[in-house]
Design brief:
alpha/beta; 3 domains; disordered C terminus; six-stranded mixed sheet; globular
Amino acid sequence: MNIKEKISLKTFEDKHFKIKLIEPDNNQEAVLTHYLYNTKDEVSKFYKEGAVEFTKEILEYKYPDEEISMQVAEEALQYGLFDTFNVPFPPNKNPKFKFIDLFAGIGGFRLALQNLGGKCVFTSEWDKEAKRTYKANFGEVPFGDITKEETKSYIPDNFDLLCAGFPCQAFSIAGKRGGFEDTRGTLFFDVAEIIKRKQPKAIFLENVKGLKNHDKGRTLTTILNVLRNDLGYFVPEPQIINAKDFGVPQNRERIYIVGFNPSTGVNTFTYPKPLKKIVSFADIKEENVPSTKYYLSTQYIKTLKNHKTRHEKKGNGFGYEIIQDDEIANAVVCGGMGRERNLVLDFRITDYTPVTHIKGEVNREGIRKMTPREWARLQGFPDEFIIPVADSSAYKQFGNSVAIPAIEETAKEILKLISLENYEANRKI
């Protein structure tokens, strides 16, 4: 066996081995890729044992007639057995700070923080299609179910910032004030538990605007109680941030919650002011005419118009919407209406031959859906970002993502207050 031979995980197409790799609860590939990207960092110790064990398994699979010891597997890793991942967004080699990315989706938080000089040292995401996109762009496979202790055990110490776009869930409030124990059984509980254990200098949480009034305001009140009273973090009032104010043509409001460890000495925070940058759909429109598959059928348009008319008669504003080139888009969301409320006009089409099975004909009015790439641009993803999944998954992933420019501008304000120099100075006081 030549352990200096380069191996790529992509070469393992055996059905059973491949299934094992993509199971949401199987963290082996996550451990290995996190180790490979942190070999020169002290956080590598959190991944080394698992990486060596998985390398041994891979070598045993590739060389079934050889006897593979743990020592051989470790030497293989040291020799650089695996191909360097050729990805568009590798980690910063000389990072200014470290962060972890929980409920990572396809890496919106990560891109924003890497743009500011940070390095992601742990990431988790359960959805296998999102993990596929994440790996294609960053080279790392996210860990799986963050509620499991096995997954939490891989989170390294001494990172600076915890980022999480956690789901909105109601709490079963047993106590009078709504505290840490009242959140048990929800995903926020796991976030709070990680904060309690690891004590990051700062936290940055993102959620839907509706969190503010969810369960008559009790959900947000409990979250703030946990962060402020149980964990002792300074947490200013959360703020609704709109993506359109930060350079992307999308009316997308999300609630941001930031917090600072008491050891930082931070007791005031100002959210970023809107950028004076006017943008419209024309700024992110496809340069070339999109495939005919994005143009709506005459039957589909008729259905949408009838649907809208019925709701208008009932006094509802529900229905499709066409965004003009000089306008901004409605919020992109993972449900079907996210596309129907963001239809556009594009008269560049010349071939009306259907490329998919449709009822009726391709419309002659130039009405089409936005493409996944246009959705990516609405969220601030650069064009180098790889979209390796089918359109249906891509729409879901970008609809669930954060708006990168808004995240980046807010993170700048956080980092100004927890720069290592300021942190060390405050800690000595």
